[in-house]
Amino acid sequence: MLLYPTCLHHPPPLLPVVIGIGMRAFITAIFTVFCVVLSGSAHSPGIDESTIPTLAHRTQETCGDNADLVPLFEIDATSLTSHIYTTSNVNVSKYIIDDTASFLGVAALIFPFSEPSTVPLFALRGTGTPSAYFYTTNATERDEVLAQGWQNWTTTGYIYSSQICGSVPLYRLHYIAANTDYIYTTSTATRDDAILNQGFTYEGIAGYVMQLSSFLTGAVCS
After folding, report:
1. For labelling alongside 174, which of 84, 164, 181, 192 has CA 20 to 30 A away?
2. Which domain of life is it from (predicted)?
């Protein structure tokens, strides 16, 4: 399973297996069972179907391969007063072992490399004490943050820039204070709670990702 209790302070022992082989096999199996490819019988006889933009053709042109999706893990590093998002189980282990951090689970599913219609999700780290982590798909915004003294950390992965292929919004919330913090979530309940009860400011949609729950309750076939 990919969901873990928020009180977990140690990385699950099978985490590398889940990320490496299990995740891909799991998603591939789901799509094999649930996704139905429609036949071309709906077209009139005599039409060359290879030139018609069928649903299958459009999916291949605009959507990434869902079998490539990997978990975007969420960590709450309390000593840094910041949330960290990563697809790396090495980073998960590092921050949980070296810091009084909590593993919060899977925030979303994203692509580890560029796929059709996706854009990079840049990650930047603040140089202050404590540090904060900032994520954006906007290159101009990234450059503005770098000009403020932040540092490039990594390219976390790749996500959609528009809501296509069954994706959902990844909301960005900012705690504006000396111990600045950012939260990224697909949950409207988490978003609203952060705004109403935790003092966060809503800053819009960072991009569009796939939800783990979509693959647990049924396949997303675009």
Report:
1. 164
2. Eukaryota
